[in-house]
Each structure stands twice: as structure tokens, then as C-alpha cells.
Write a structure and sequence with these properties.
mainly beta, 4-stranded antiparallel sheet, 0% helix, Thrombin, subunit H, 10 strands, 112 residues, globular
């Protein structure tokens, strides 16, 4: 789902005010999983952990750790998932499956 830079996320009766431009989002197990636009991290020192989950009150539950240590890495897409997982891919060429409740990596595959 493309949001086109909007900062207001409303889906399935959950509302979160985003702090950065949003590229995509999904709702799973009562959490809003948000992929922030990778360009919002330009000029920031270190890595930009741009995949985060929020509860119904808007509190951050987790930030997904990037699969590489390079400062240019970021998440670039949400790629589906299952009832308890979220799929994503990174700029560094990894496809990841994350536990939706914790953000922990369940599966990681290098694709490049």
C-alpha cells in the first residue's frame, strides 16, 4: 500500500501519527507495521532503521534491525508475510521474514 509521503496512518481502526514520510504499511496482529521512506534517512549518521511497529495507542513496539552493517542499508519494501510474520527486503539484497510481535528475524536470504 503506497501512502505517497503521508504522515497519517489509518488502517483497520488503528491510527498512528507518523514522524516521517511513509512508503508502505500493513496491519498484523493489532500492530501497525510501518516502512518509512528510506530517503528520510539521508544525511543521518549511521543506519536508518526504517521499519517499525506501533501499537493501537501509537507507542513504538519494535524497530527491525538491518541485515548488514553498512550505513547505506535500509529496508526498501514490504513483501507480504503470514498471520504472525512480516516480509521485507533490504537495499543490501536480503529478503527477511520477521516475527510481527517482536521484529526478530525468523528467516533471512541473500538475493543479489
Amino acid at each position: 500500500m503506497s501512502i505517497d509521503g503521508s504522515r497519517e496512518l489509518i488502517s483497520c481502526a488503528l491510527a498512528v501519527e507518523a514522524q516521517l514520510p511513509v512508503l508502505a504499511l500493513t496491519v498484523c496482529r493489532g500492530l501497525v507495521v510501518v516502512l518509512y521512506d528510506p530517503d528520510a534517512g539521508l544525511g543521518r549518521p549511521g543506519q536508518f532503521e526504517n521499519l517499525r511497529a506501533y501499537d493501537a495507542e501509537g507507542a513504538e513496539v519494535w524497530r527491525a534491525s538491518l541485515p548488514s552493517s553498512t550505513s547505506s542499508d535500509c529496508f526498501v519494501a514490504l513483501t507480504g508475510g503470514g498471520p504472525f510474520t512480516v516480509g521485507t527486503s533490504s537495499f543490501s539484497g536480503y529478503r527477511l521474514i520477521l516475527d510481527v510481535e517482536t521484529g526478530a528475524v525468523i528467516e533471512s536470504e541473500f538475493n543479489k
